[in-house]
Write a structure and sequence with these properties.
The complex is a heterotetramer, with two copies of chain A (about 600 residues) and two copies of chain C (about 350 residues). Chain A contains 19 helices and 23 strands. Chain A has about 600 residues and is of the alpha/beta class. Chain A folds into four domains: about 190 residues, Pyruvate-ferredoxin oxidoreductase, PFOR, domain III (Pyruvate-ferredoxin Oxidoreductase, domain 3), CATH 3.40.920; about 180 residues, Thiamin diphosphate (ThDP)-binding fold, Pyr/PP domains (Rossmann fold); about 70 residues, no CATH class; about 110 residues, Rossmann fold (3-Layer(aba) Sandwich), CATH 3.40.50. In chain A, strand 22, helix 18 and strand 23 form a beta-alpha-beta unit. Chain C has a single domain, classed as 3-Layer(aba) Sandwich (Rossmann fold), CATH 3.40.50. Chain C has a nine-stranded mixed β-sheet, with helices on both faces. A two-stranded antiparallel sheet of chain C has the order 5-6. Chain C is built from twelve helices and eleven strands. In chain C, about 30% of the residues lie in helices and about 15% in strands. With about 350 residues, chain C is of the alpha/beta class. Classes of the chains: A alpha/beta (about 600), C alpha/beta (about 350). Chains in contact: A-B, A-C, A-D, B-C, B-D, C-D. At the B-C interface, strand 9, helix 7, strand 10, strand 11 and helix 9 of B face strand 2, helix 3, helix 5, helix 11 and helix 12 of C. Strand 17 of chain A pairs parallel with strand 2 of chain D. The structure holds thiamine diphosphate (2 copies), iron/sulfur cluster (2 copies) and magnesium ion (MG) (2 copies). One iron/sulfur cluster binds next to loops of chain D. The site of one magnesium ion has 10 residues of chain D, from helix 4 and strand 5.
Chain lengths: ~600, ~600, ~350, ~350
Amino acid sequence: MKKISSINDFVIKFANVNGSGSASANQMFAKGVFRSGIPVSPKNIFPSNIQGLPTWFEVRVNEKGYLGRREGIDISVAMNPQSYGDDIKELKSGGYLIYDSSWKRDFGREDINVLGIPLTELCVNEFSNPKQRLLFKNLGYVGFLASLLKMDKDIYISLINEQFRGKEKLIEPNVKALEIGYSYAEENFKDFCDIQVNKSNKTEGLILTSGNDAAGLGCVYGGATFCAWYPITPSTSLAESYSDYSEKLRIEIGTDKNKFAFIQAEDELAAIGMTIGANWNGARGFTATSGPGISLMSEFIGLAYFAEVPSVIFDVQRGGPSTGMPTRTQQSDLLACAYASHGDTKHVLLIPSDPNECFDFSIEAFDLADRLQTPVIVLMDLDLGMNDWSTKEFDWDDTKEYDKGKVLSKEDLDGMEKFGRYLDVDGDGIPYRTYPGTHPNKGAYFTRGTSHDEYARYTEDGDKNAEVLSRLLKKYQTASELVPKPVFNQEKSTSSIGIIYFGSTDCSMQETLDQLDEENLNVDAMRLRAFPFNLEVWEFIEDHDLLFIVEQNRDGQMRTLMMAEGGIIPDKLVSILCFDGQPITASYIKNKINAHLSGVPAKTA
Amino acid sequence: MKKISSINDFVIKFANVNGSGSASANQMFAKGVFRSGIPVSPKNIFPSNIQGLPTWFEVRVNEKGYLGRREGIDISVAMNPQSYGDDIKELKSGGYLIYDSSWKRDFGREDINVLGIPLTELCVNEFSNPKQRLLFKNLGYVGFLASLLKMDKDIYISLINEQFRGKEKLIEPNVKALEIGYSYAEENFKDFCDIQVNKSNKTEGLILTSGNDAAGLGCVYGGATFCAWYPITPSTSLAESYSDYSEKLRIEIGTDKNKFAFIQAEDELAAIGMTIGANWNGARGFTATSGPGISLMSEFIGLAYFAEVPSVIFDVQRGGPSTGMPTRTQQSDLLACAYASHGDTKHVLLIPSDPNECFDFSIEAFDLADRLQTPVIVLMDLDLGMNDWSTKEFDWDDTKEYDKGKVLSKEDLDGMEKFGRYLDVDGDGIPYRTYPGTHPNKGAYFTRGTSHDEYARYTEDGDKNAEVLSRLLKKYQTASELVPKPVFNQEKSTSSIGIIYFGSTDCSMQETLDQLDEENLNVDAMRLRAFPFNLEVWEFIEDHDLLFIVEQNRDGQMRTLMMAEGGIIPDKLVSILCFDGQPITASYIKNKINAHLSGVPAKTA
Amino acid sequence: MTYITKPINHHPRLESNKLGLTRRDYEGSVSTLCAGCGHDSISAAIVEACFQLNIEAYRVAKLSGIGCSSKAPAYFLNQSHGFNSVHGRMPSIATGAAMANHELLYLGVSGDGDTASIGIGQFIHCARRQLNMTYFVENNGTYGLTKGQFSATNDLESKSKYGDENLFPAIDLPSMAIQLGASFVARSFSGDRDQLVPLIKAAMCHKGFSLLDIISPCVTFNNHNTSTKSYDYIREHNEALSKPDFVPLGKEITTSYEPGESSEVSLHDGSTLSLTKLALDYDPTDKIIAIKKIQESQRDGKVLTGLLYADPSAKDLKEILNITDQPLNTLTQEQLCPGKSALKDINDNLK
Amino acid sequence: MTYITKPINHHPRLESNKLGLTRRDYEGSVSTLCAGCGHDSISAAIVEACFQLNIEAYRVAKLSGIGCSSKAPAYFLNQSHGFNSVHGRMPSIATGAAMANHELLYLGVSGDGDTASIGIGQFIHCARRQLNMTYFVENNGTYGLTKGQFSATNDLESKSKYGDENLFPAIDLPSMAIQLGASFVARSFSGDRDQLVPLIKAAMCHKGFSLLDIISPCVTFNNHNTSTKSYDYIREHNEALSKPDFVPLGKEITTSYEPGESSEVSLHDGSTLSLTKLALDYDPTDKIIAIKKIQESQRDGKVLTGLLYADPSAKDLKEILNITDQPLNTLTQEQLCPGKSALKDINDNLK
Ligand SMILES: Cc1ncc(C[n+]2csc(CCOP(=O)(O)OP(=O)(O)O)c2C)c(N)n1
Ligand SMILES: Cc1ncc(C[n+]2csc(CCOP(=O)(O)OP(=O)(O)O)c2C)c(N)n1
Ligand code: SF4
Ligand code: SF4
Ligand SMILES: [Mg+2]
Ligand SMILES: [Mg+2]
């Protein structure tokens, strides 16, 4: 029998039933690999449902640090008879199938290695409480894998100990469950598997966390004191991360009171309204949502744009349109965000590509919003937001100071002749603002979404209003200079072919680039990190004759933005699109590029 | 003293106080000119307020039928001392100023002709009721003008008679008020004025009405039985027109019951939801709104797109962004409408350019929505919607049949093996639908905004969902073949320069084209009437080296759509933009074109 | 999802009703809700009510928003058209649909999140317009589908699965509906089928807006006062894990008690719910008394169940708007289009 | 608009308060509302209340939605920051603002359209959260700014300026607010300054959500029962015109009556409004009684005015959320940023 053989480089997929407690166990498995020093990228593929439906958990283990999704499964932990059919199909020839052999089964494939462990039986024997019997099957297969892959069991025992700190009585049964699986494998499958996890040191300086976790923490570091949100997958855990970290890091010593306000709003319209209200009053506030929420917020986003109130919005994108695929990933809200709301509007977008950057860009978002006095939308996606990534440690420079933008103090006002809220004093399109309650008789003004003049007075004079609208374009120009610059994979462009990509695509792109390099195809690559586009973006485009632009949506929305904003000759922008809700893979991108270059359509559709 | 001299070609502007009853009188003046056989284009320039603020009413009288706004006022009827300053400024040298000389005034300009009529005095003498004294000043100056411009007084007397049909006791005092002004002019300014209205026949086949009136009537003719709306300027009168016409044309004989439902919703989200619900059930339903409403509706528009429920939405655009300039005109909701909602979406837009076309396109909108099973947005603007235009008579062909699209009857279902709501049976991307309650055991399905397969079953299979999304692109392609084609000003393109324009810009554009022709500049022109763009649009673009695209917004939104959808070389698309909330003028367009061609920036900014 | 997780509930008594249909003919697809979810009990009660009323399923329209509860319409009446719309906006869809064809029976299914938070505006205005529909609130005091946040109907100071305390008072939908002019308002409990089925039948037969506020416990994110019993072990386990993702299989909670009586129901988390059934002599036609009763029971920590208020003579929206008896969606072009002749007058009027 | 239409209302008594300010110091820009609009009377009452309470105007934030009423904040307290937001969404702006700085005094001004239709959801949830603000509903039963459509607080069967009949029952905001947990709820009449000013003062001093539902007649699109008196001629004239655009100049309607008494007020269209003031011995601390009273008066066609309900000991949102006493918007970077040192632990936890 052929056996896949590999060290520290494989994909393992767990098939479970939703609500059976598997997610935590699977995550623990991944963390164990990570602790062994090998980068992992676990991905949770879950239904929009709470209990009883199939759910999968795919972990790519890769010592080189390729963290994008990869097609083909090497090891399948098939714990859900409902999905056996699908699970078997995906398994590569020579792969390993692990299943609960309490009920024996023939899987009808000769080219795979089937490993049975009678998990249910073992747990029934060991545990009396029926809930425990169910729950501990999960840790059972984790133990089984630890032995199979020749991992250090103690890593898992410490993980259990850490997890149940404070609930010590839970440690023992959990460890016991782990041991059951471990021993069973030791006894029955010793040295069976040719895939191994060998200790390495490739996770030094890395942490394992999700973009939502990182962004929530970034909001704490960025000085956000206010969050209003409405639950929606996949953004919910971002708001929760902010709340959890705040509960730890933002309690006033002595009084035990909160140095933050966290409000579950009644809907997205209220969430964004509250966010705008808080920022208007000088607190840093944000909201987090996903596609449908962006649609609902769009009237208010237009208000914040036109009345020039800072506000930070996280859009963790999911499969659209409409309710769409709430538990799948896409990058399809670009247009909805960039031009949100009726009338002429343009918004600042930040697009991080890994949790570390989610942390940094959250902080940056508040600075930019305050500096530019406008909504800043941080565009993430489900894959980046909800899955754990092996990412660089968070870093913070204690000398960094918040940029609260152009805010006039009482003293500033005292020294002023006349305050004009919307006067372009500095020629950068950004006016000065005052917080309510600053000065007894100076600096008060009316914030409004109706047409207004430089002194914030209501006007129906079309020319005056047109001046304000034109100044907003100037501000937008300023924004393009302030937002994060693109990241280039090369110091200097040397090819006539360029690749443009952004967001969570990064992890697969790095692999694609290496593959292309191996094939001796010289390409330049640029990762966009923000909208409006800065000069570097246009230069890169200018410098290349052919540009692939890789997006996880149907309509090539980033390409639309580039053409709309930059006057790019469209023929040179070739879209590579993936919109099936799965994270894009390196081989998909590579195939599409090769197919275009060779004139033969790629096989993968 | 210089006097402007002109027959049937001038601009008169009335300056009044809001809420003083002037709008009806001014409208009557315009209608009198129209009845004299000369096309007019009255424009109401009103504040977002109910009473006490300055308001203007500008009437262009032009025998050639140029109905766009024109700069420079020939006659000013200055009834509002608050705005004397502005009103005087706009008056051309040699122009005529009419004012209420009950309070004498020196206007400080030597080059204009000042005509005083002591209206307040005259009315106080004639009427005892204080409300009447105020109200009848308006008819007083109408009478004055009738004499001054040598018009047929009887036209106004019939207009009064018609207006107060059913309230006959109001006729006499109104006529009396008219006579007061008329006699005063006869006595004091006989033959004074060199501007005259001479009877003509240029209004044959024309009517004087607004786009909102026409569209509301079109909805009646188009078979709409349902309207849900929420009041918002400038779309309110569209819904009201539908209701008024329905009250007349849609009452069931015998029972006196309504063959329509008209619901003032609690907000725009409800209005669009109701509209979708009605269409889902097979009735033709619509809603009418303006910018902020579109933003609020965008979540639901995405649902209708993805679940493929027909729905018709009128967006009567006003000055944006945000609450913006609610009583001014713009064409700035193009992007918000074309790509409304998060995720990948594209919507069908119809863009009429005069009330006659508003009528036709309303009818067309229902056919297209039903045929394509998707939202159709009719994009109008305040100028087109709320102002009266001299437009072609409405026409209806009694042989025309409503196209209700692909709907399966009970008999159809009986003859079918298996019904698949989202199956692309005909290869045009448009599936078949069933109305609820059609068949006892066939054809029922679940309409949803979540991902679904061809049988309308919920699915989380990304490939299946991607297939549906791809089919929607095919449908969009079909749509481009079904929507109204552009209108060309020439049979064949003969120039290398083209002009692209749309909507209410048409009236000024015709004048521009004639002016350019006089200057011997040969240009081709195309009026867009719909999105997605059809082949003819692309051919026109292909055929020209330089294209001016004229829009009443800041960001060149139509240009963005063309570049995004068509892969147009951007350098060849030159924007001419006007976004001060006033309807664009012929000379503005002409100046911009000339300036570009000569390389000298135009003076008007 | 095509995976089958739970067996279809086969009714022992396969008797048929006047239409010759069995209960099975009123069922829907297999539920994907958690085992023991109250919402499934409500679906079963709806099936029973339709069976007993001899309803033609294809003349029913099932409408919902988004949430576990809003998925429920897929699990009953397979022969009915369904519309699973967007979060909180089912009432507007229902309004348009019912105006287009008033002859269908409209069942709206919503959750407490869907109704009392994002959807409260549409709920209020739909009730106020007296739309002829039966509006089910499958009320579990939590956001089931998004994993257990508090909803606005949750009781003040009750605790979540994760130990958080609810800080805000509950919105009482029935008293709100009564004040707004709804003409049929009842409250019940998902597990009290004896009370529920007749109430559903009555609501379906009522002309005008009928609200059924049905307490429907959520197995997974149960919302009632934490009284730490058997559920404890799992709760603790869940709290200790970073991704609490274990849902123990629950059983349907049922109860049965007489008018005028009270019943203490044990919930999945071991806490209790105190139900009080309106006495037989309660007169549900006086709004003022109804609201007072509800408020008093609230003050006393009890949940009043039964038919709280009804006005059998109320007009519904179709009548209020004086709409023709022929469904609007069946009017023909001849009935709708005024034709060329009528245009002449209109054109003339505009000259 | 820079045009001046109405003279600033010069107060005869230019006395000053404890801060040394006169009433004029509390005024705003010149009103652009219709002459005689009730909203202007309310602005005047707010000026008076602030003057009497010695409020520092710059420590007040004035928030509103969209509508004639929502323009009103421009017409009082020129030294206060104002936020004229979007239609129906002022409560969310207020919530965010008040959390950012709880030390300012928040005055929210809204209309009945802004609150009871598009804004009912935010109104409800803001009340339920006990936000510390005074919420004014300048209630005229109509959509003034969009020219006279019925609002959801309009009485059933009353007629519009154009003769249309209102088909739906009125939403009663005070009883809704009381049920939702608002801790100060009062109703008054724009023209009853003797009642209004003390109520505004009390509401401003109250901690928690205070609702002032103030009947504020609209001169132009008056909404009460058509009793065809002097207004008639103009109404008829307007109906006959295609664009009814004449607004006769109105006078402010005032009244003054004692607790326990009733007052019949003639409105601009000649119809009457029947006000009843709560008696001196009315106890406004019992919710159940308050709601019953309101309902009974409604049944009898009367409008009950006065302080309907108050709970002086209620907590407000800031307390409920246990937020620090230092306004959040004044916390410094040192107080907010956990710094590099804290990151080490966090990073370690994620390994
Ligand atoms: C606009 C929008 N916001 C948020 C969501 C996410 N969401 C889905 S269901 C739900 C709450 C459901 O709660 P409830 O109505 O009580 O139903 P339950 O699941 O408890 O039965 C939310 C917030 C969404 N789908 N759409
Ligand atoms: C989203 C949105 N929809 C509609 C409007 C139009 N609009 C402006 S004010 C108003 C109603 C105002 O009524 P109310 O709140 O009662 O104020 P009033 O003018 O009567 O004082 C409406 C519908 C708007 N500005 N925004
Ligand atoms: S999460 Fe709660 S409401 Fe949702 S299906 Fe499970 S038990 Fe029912
Ligand atoms: S229309 Fe009515 S509410 Fe608006 S300002 Fe005039 S009187 Fe006041
Ligand atoms: Mg719920
Ligand atoms: Mg109002």
